[in-house]
Task: structure prediction
Amino acid sequence: MAGNTPTATSYIQHHLQNLTFGYHPEHGWSIAHSAQEASDMGFWALHLDTLGWSIALGLVFVLLFRKVALKATTGVPSGLQNFVELMVEFVDNSVKDTFHGKSRLIAPLSLTIFCWVFLMNLMDLVPVDFLPMMAQKIAAMFGADPAHVYFKVVPTTDVNATLGMALSVFGLILFYTIREKGFSGFIGELTLHPFSSPNKLVQALFIPVNFLLETVTLLAKPISLALRLFGNLYAGELIFILIAMIGLWQLPLHFAWATFHILVITLQAFIFMMLTIVYLSMAVEKH
Result:
């Protein structure tokens, strides 16, 4: 796709490159025409495909559930209403079993995370060439070079998306910790655990060690949350790309891997949701 006869390397690189918009030192504000240009744009560049699909799929979730809520009936429910009620009940039970504090935000947040991450992961089942080729054809209609049109359709294969969601969870962890325990309690958790001693002098010596260990533990939560989701979906997408390069024999392999990958897609959405609930429950627990 990076040319008329792309090599295996260029084909893979093209599929794994985001549609990037940012400020280039030579071209100003523009869309990157190569991976090097995207790299030159630096940290503040925007991945338009990731943002676009994330927002679109978020709207699909919100509008679908809103439609069901507005048309909900106590009589014979539709299949869609049954599905939505099943999802709400499943998430609600997960929150009741795991979250031990009091907050009206956790259940809606968990439902949003599960459904949104699932929908973003589900884009991995779309044939790898279908939407990128459509994007190239549309770009060609406006005079753009199709070889320079990049279009990733799975937001969770972009570490910026998964890390952004994980940092939002991290912000909530800090908020709930400070709200429930106060700032002094938050500092106490970082400095007085896991090693403690009734001797004040010994405890003072433990403070730097505790602070180092607890800070690493705290920062590891959003990083592991982001990289777990990103790594699994990135690997799955890469396998789909490799299968697409086989040619005639790709269809049976594609369907076999897609069947297995449905489990990965669902499981990763569930894990992201459950870890969020667990981390927030830990934040409100008082020791």
In short: The chain has one domain: 8-284. Strands lie at 20-24, 28-31, 46-47.
